[in-house]
Design goal:
Length: 101
């Protein structure tokens, strides 16, 4: 495994595996107990419609770490694992239906 310093990731561009420019890495969110990186916090590209993406209260994109395919000159994000609001709505609706008597 190649080790990369977090400082080298700052402002690195994020692009999906389908070629959509998401934005630039702004911060990382960690689990305090395990130290595991959970989420990439990204400043969205100015041309990106963020209405379907999961964002924080400041409008920054929240990208699950499990969606990262590779890190090189830029960070490649697997679009099928990218958290989008429509997926989250479908998941919560399915969970709701399964919990009904």
């Amino acid at each position: 495994m190649v080790k990369i310093k977090a400082s080298k990731l700052r402002d690195m561009e994020l692009i999906t595996d389908t070629g959509v420019r998401l934005g630039w890495l702004y911060d990382l969110s960690f689990d305090e107990e395990t130290g595991e990186i959970l989420v990439i916090v990204a400043e969205p590209d100015e041309d990106l419609d963020t209405s379907e993406f999961v964002t924080d209260h400041e409008g920054l994109l929240l990208i699950p770490m499990k969606a990262v395919k590779s890190i090189g000159e830029f960070i490649v994000i697997d679009h099928s694992k990218l958290a989008v609001k429509s997926k989250l709505r479908r998941i919560s609706m399915i969970k709701e239906r399964l919990q009904r008597p």
